[in-house]
Amino acid sequence: MTNLLALVKPTTKSYEELCTLVREHLNPKESILMARYRFYTCQRSKGQEVASYIVKLRRLAGHCKFDGFLEQMLRDFFVLGIDHEVILCKLLNVETLNLSKAIMIAQYSVTLLYSRHNIKGTIFYTNGSFRCATGDISNISQFAIHCPIREITDAQYTMRRNYISFPITREKQLERACGFARIVGFPMVQDTIDCTHLILRAAHNNPEVFRNCKDYHSLNVQLVHDHTCRILTVKACYPDSSHDAFILRQTGVSAPFQPPHQARGWLLGDKGYLLSTWLMTPLCNPNTPAQHSYNESQAVTKNIIVRSDQAMVPLPWPLGSSPSVEWVSLCIIICCMLRNLRSQPLPPGIAPPQEV
Q1: Which of 81, 190, 213, 153 lies closest to 335 in space, CA to CA?
Q2: Contact by Cβ (8 Å): 223, 193
Q3: Closest by CA position to 202, among listed 328, 320, 315
Q4: What separation in angstroms does the CA of 50 have from each of 27, 44, 92, 110, 114?
Q5: CA 312 to chain centroid
Q6: What pTM, to 2 d.p., does this model score?
Q7: DSSP-based three-state secondary structure for 81
Q8: For 127-144, how does the pLDDT look when each residue is reduced to its tens digit (9 = 90+)?
Q9: pLDDT digits (tens, 9 = 90+) for 19-41
Q10: How far apart are CA 114 and CA 189, in angstroms?
């Protein structure tokens, strides 16, 4: 207080004058020059949304006292903050451009460019093309197409539990058991399990681990299906040298059949698995008619996963040009998600796409 009053004693001022003095000290009025300096030096940060940028400009212009030139100044500096060449050309080619029209054009262009960016990444999954082919379709380099593919893959992977899950509610258990029973009468079947080989290009590191008995490189992918061929679990990180039973022991497929869940029923597997209280496998040496009937029923019921595995397109996943096995595994999981999504019924009011 003494510093604020300089040579004047505080006792010579009234209470109201002292309050005003402190208030002005704590909340000093910004000069017009300083306010305009902040406005003129404002730059749009990388990746900042159009709406956020214009709000920032309006806030800084509040103390500049542009008066009748406010909208014009906001428009000019809004255009100066656009760093994308395509959007900037669109704005500069408009003769009568006001602020609202500039914002509309910029927002529409950003949305369109973002949609195209996502479409380029989606081509990788929708038509089975790899980065080279996808880049050729989009007329950009393989290195450039890697970015949208990675963004699409990471975004879809975060939603994997919405499309690949093993529900163990009583309603779902009953639905699956009835669905499998309608095939040939095999009772209390919850799911079928098997492993399938997905072809890979040879890996740079330890390629022989991925070589299978048919002398090509592949991943041994474990899939669990229900009666509608919907994929409930997928494990796609093991080379072909890993046995089916070994992969099963490393995963949590048996968890729904153990306490506290204790699903009523069992899985059906082939001879590559060990018989368990929750996993029914075929008999090795059937002798009686009942044993032969069991094997036939088990094979026919389990045949649903064979048809489903054949639907998995045997593309040569490019492990040799990919960062790791985890990346290829992640791509396979996304393909399983899209396959489940394709089998889901459309929401009410949505018509199926017309064939061209």
Answers
A1: 153
A2: yes
A3: 320
A4: 31, 9, 17, 8, 13
A5: 20
A6: 0.58
A7: coil
A8: 545 544 444 444 555 556
A9: 777 777 666 666 788 888 888 88
A10: 46
CA atoms within 13 A on the CB side of 279: 20
Range of 205-209, 299-303, 305-309 with top mean pLDDT: 299-303
Comparing CA positions, the residue from 72, 70, 22, 64 lying closest to residue 41 is 64
d(CA 262, CA 231): 21
d(CA 60, CA 42) in angstroms, rounded, equals: 8
Helix (H, G, I), strand (E, B) or coil at 223: strand
Measured CA to CA, the distance from residue 173 to residue 331 in angstroms comes to 29
Q: How many CB atoms lie within 10 A of CB 274?
A: 11
DSSP state for residue 47 in the 8-state scheme: T
Q: What is the pLDDT of residues 307-329, one digit of tens each?
A: 665 555 444 444 444 457 777 88
pLDDT of residue 220: 86
| Token pair recorded at residue 65 | 């006292």
Percent of the chain clearing pLDDT 90 (strictly above): 3
- b vs e for 313-350, b when ≥16 Cβ sit within 10 Å of the residue's Cβ? eeeebebeebeebeebbbbbbbbbbebbeeeeeeeeee
The maximal CA–CA distance of the chain, rounded, in angstroms, is 116
